[in-house]
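call fold(seq) -> tokens
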Amino acid sequence: MVKLTKLIDDAVLVEPGAKSQLRKRATLADDIFPDRDAAEEATKDNAKAIDALQDALWAERDRALLVILQGIDTSGKDGTVRAVFNRCGPLGVDVTPFGKPSEEELAHDFLWRIHMAAPKKGVIGVFNRSQYEDVLVVKVRGLASADVVEQRYEQINAFEKHLTDNGTRVLKFMLNISKDEQKERLQARLDDPTKNWKFNASDLEDRKLWDDYAKAYEVVLDRCSTAHAPWRVVPADRKWQRNAIIAATVRKTLEDMAPAYPKPDWKASDFQIT
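ret:
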């Protein structure tokens, strides 16, 4: 496991202070998981281990884990949640999707809704999109001034440092797919009646801004990959490779956290069930 996660991090981790070079990064992970059957089996095994570790984390109630999933439309955020956390019980995993801010959310600072959704102690929180929408979509679409966007990078870094200083580990995954792969996935949403509901015409508008989003993501990765919350750019053209990489990383992170069941202040032998 240690050898595998080192291989993964060597390929996907954005070293703090280094240039991410996003557009040079791979969207396939054949050097890590070349075999589909093996990758899918590994994901199942890791999902089972994550469930056991999450159970101990929930019982311990002392720390939390936040998993952030970012990526352009069709990159597989929902699919990742299903594959990696499908074995976990509902008590200890909270999934929060962030869409267009509501009127109430816009009446507060941009991190207000994010902090409200941060996982409490004992919980794995999963963000489907996140605070980074406010330096991605907002930037590309010109929904805030350049000065406002500029100050948000350090505000996000400070927010994530606050979380980690208070017992929440932060894992950040950027799901990196190619433009050709996105085209196929969007077409599949049109061709398959059971996927029509996923299609949104606005996705085509964002697709026209592909290069602008790539530049915006590169700034995010360069500016916000920190020692306390580094970014990982996950090759996501093949769903099974994406899932295997993220499941292995989440499991290793939880193992490093080593949650432990609390010891009661009584002995089981003192009680008899009649």
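The domain at 2-258 is CATH 3.40.50.300 (Rossmann fold).
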